[in-house]
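ARCHIVE RECORD
Type: protein–small molecule complex
Small molecule: uridine-5'-diphosphate-glucuronic acid
Source of inputs: curated submission
Record status: active
Notes field left blank by submitter.
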Amino acid sequence: MGDRRGGARPPRGGVVFIAVGTPSRRGDGHADLSYVYTAAREIAAALDGFTVIITKSTVPVGTGDEVDRIIRETRPDADFAVVSNPEFLREGAAIQDFKHPDRIVAGADEDRARNVFAEIYRPLYLNKAPILYTSRRTAELIKYAANAFLATKIAFINEMADLAEEVGADVQDVARGIGLDNRIGSKFLHAGPGFGGSCFPKDTRALLQTAHDYEVPLRIIEAVIAANDIRKRAMARKVSAAFGGALRGKTIALLGLTFKPNTDDIREAPSIPLITALQDMGALVRAFDPVGMEHAKAILPDVVYCDGPYSCADGADGVVIVTEWEQFRALDFNLMKQRMACPLLVDLRNIYSSDEMERHGFLYVGIGRKVPSHALRL
Ligand code: UGA
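STRUCTURE (tokenized, with ligand):
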């Protein structure tokens, strides 16, 4: 922002974005705001002319007020406004999400700040992305509510998957059947091994902490967090059952370590508790991930890391797909079968179907589909 006409004099004022990390504080799940507050102090020292300070970091309700207070305390003379502008970018799709957002949320309590904000976002607004102006506290809550709602959809469909397995239904058809209802929507209804990453687990916990601070019960979010934790642990039992209940001495080839495709991030990835539990049950774990292995090696040292899906399958008693990387969607199953000791596929992302895999001569176990009785007899 600033003076577009250029000239020798540097523009005064302008816009400063705060986009620092807010990791979970060790011990209590609260968001650690020390980086935000440090940034606020640094900004305060440099303020010159009317400045809009826009917080993009995911911060609990009331943080904008605190940033405001810190700056006002440090620089009582300064002319500024603090705006909350939560981001909804997904890892691995950030540029696309930035250019084509569903909405832009601006929590600004005064008109001057709104005008500057509108000017900054004009190119995206021209692209028809609606800007929703709210109070600052509301914008802060919108961010957590969005992530918590998406996490709830996933936890919900994962529970439906468990039920589908027992009653002989197919969860993917259930997801389609409900998702076609526009009031529900089809997105974030893919059953899997549980959500991970640096956002949903952290933000649901932080939302719960805020609710505790204000003594407001959030039973649904509590249940989502608990259901997701339980689910991640249950995946090892699912794999074990597919192997007939005995894993000691078995070799398992695990495809995908990251919490989702197109990222090297393994934070809170379902692969971590899964591998640890499989090893505890006596299995030897081989693994391949297109980009996540470096990070995984640091926390999962006792895994045999391989350079591709086929070498990973060498001598394995079964393959488990944990992350739906594009390159796992069209595997050559003849080749896989030749290299494996036993043609068993446990597909925790439902990227294949049992009919297709049976044609390849594989025993197949997916998520939320009736478990074939032959898998249990292995
Ligand atoms: C998430 C939100 O989608 C973004 O809008 C938000 O900006 C971001 O958090 C954030 O707060 O910074 P991200 O964590 O990158 O983005 O990943 P998602 O694509 O949302 O996936 C999260 C987890 O849910 C992954 O483990 C994924 O496998 C799982 N998931 C997602 C499912 O199990 N099923 C689904 O249908 C969708």
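CURATOR ANNOTATION: Residues 58, 87-91, 147, 150, 154, 188-190, 192, 195-197, 199-200, 203, 259-260 surround uridine-5'-diphosphate-glucuronic acid (CB under 6 Å).
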